[in-house]
Amino acid sequence: MPQNTLDDPNTARKRWMGVLARTGLDKLEEAYASLSSAPKHAILRKPETGLIMVQGRANGTGQKFNAGEMTVTRCSVRLPAGSIGHAYVAGRSRRHAELAAIFDALLQDPEHVDALEENLIAPSENALAAQRVLQQRKAAATKVDFFTMVRGEDPK
Q1: Bridge partners of 84?
Q2: Which domain holds residue 102?
Q3: Which of 28, 32, 36, 129 has the lowest CB atom count within 10 Å?
Q4: How far is residue 85's CA from residue 6's CA, in Å, rounded to a whole number?
């Protein structure tokens, strides 16, 4: 059973939107070209690029701080069947945002969800997980542990 048929449709949509945003443009183009027919869509919000403030936390639990700005491109589309797709992707790729929005709308249609889950979402999710493991291994190889040796007690 695909993960996108969970009880909460928002959980499934959050998952596939995240995968679409992080999947490379080349993979999205390949998946779009493999569709039996290119879906007609109306642009509700044309792809536009802007900046967002990225926040961080020390050790993931500390007080929030502004880490800096990041470029994001967003897009919204509507398919003839009525489903509306949205996308926010890192960077300036307008085509990436448009394709991600189209796939978001298609994934809301029960007619397309299983095929797209099997041919696009699951393989992309697996590739992203493998890439993340590789990055973690590279980072772990450069980790330096600092420690202090106690040489004795300070005189009082």
Answers
A1: 78
A2: 3-138
A3: 36
A4: 19
What's the predicted TM-score (pTM) here? Answer: 0.81
20: tokens are 């679409």
What φ, ψ does residue 49 adopt, rounded to 5°? Answer: -110, 140
What distance in Å separates the CA atoms of residue 58 and residue 62, rounded to the nearest whole number?
5
Residue 72 belongs to a domain: yes
The answer to whether position 156 is within a domain reads: no
Structure tokens at 143: 């980790």
Residue 64 is assigned to a structural domain of this protein: yes
Q: Give the total number of structural domains in the chain.
A: 1
> What pLDDT digit, counting tens, does each position of 66-115 carry?
999 999 999 999 999 999 999 999 999 999 999 999 999 999 999 999 99
Q: Scanning the structure block, which residue is given the tokens 């993979």?
A: 27
Residue 95 included in any domain = yes
Contact (CB, 8 A) for 121 and 100? no
What 3-state DSSP class applies to 49?
Answer: strand
Residue 65 pLDDT more than 70?
Answer: yes
